[in-house]
Amino acid sequence: DAGVIQSPRHEVTEMGQEVTLRCKPISGHNSLFWYRQTMMRGLELLIYFNNNVPIDDSGMPEDRFSAKMPNASFSTLKIQPSEPRDSAVYFCASSPLRLGPDTQYFGPGTRLTVL
Amino acid sequence: AQKVTQAQTEISVVEKEDVTLDCVYETRDTTYYLFWYKQPPSGELVFLIRRNSFDEQNEISGRYSWNFQKSTSSFNFTITASQVVDSAVYFCALSLRYTGNQFYFGTGTSLTVIP
Q1: Full DSSP string of A43-112
Q2: Contact criterion met (CB < 8 Å) for A100 and B31
Q3: Which among B50, B105, B107 has the least Cβ separation from residue A103?
Q4: What are the tens digits of pLDDT across the range B47-100?
Q5: Residue A12 touches partner B, C-beta closer than 8 Å
């Protein structure tokens, strides 16, 4: 089975531009997570969805960030407008939704650089 | 509040030495799950192990072993006869029974195995 797929793998953009990161979870997984990783702050959970519904978006830094999951096989994380401090690696992870917490499987990440 | 502490920020060992990575967690819940992930220099996060709070049996997988002790709220990870390929950042994470699949990650331990 294919793992979590993220695109693009690398993105370089200029401050003020809109950035859209994409994620395809593992088929059959009902939970999807967006994380951001930086040297200063480590791994931060931005938002997660269960059955396509956002459950907790308290980690989303500010209104410039938005995430959607229109169906079970696709999610986007959008930053508009982007700023240099948004430079980070963004990971998407998916997990089965069972009675108890289950393993999260991570995508390869998108390395975002905002100039 | 939930918290995972990995007090060792960086560890260096010479190849073939054994090394233990510490993980201490805090939670008031009686049902929880603990995880270890590996992040090699290539950047992806690789799942290593998942344990639930009712299973305190130690686990061994090849050169890897895990020691779960509820009495000290620790879930330590030992690599026996370390190899250069073990060089990576290792993350410990906690997830609770009633908070969906949300993970609480430690800050990671960077392991360097010197040939």
Answers
A1: EEEEEEEETTEEEE-TT--STTEEEEEEETTEEEEEESS--GGG-EEEEEEEE---SS----EE---EEE
A2: yes
A3: B50
A4: 999 998 988 888 888 999 999 999 999 999 999 999 999 999 999 999 987 766
A5: no
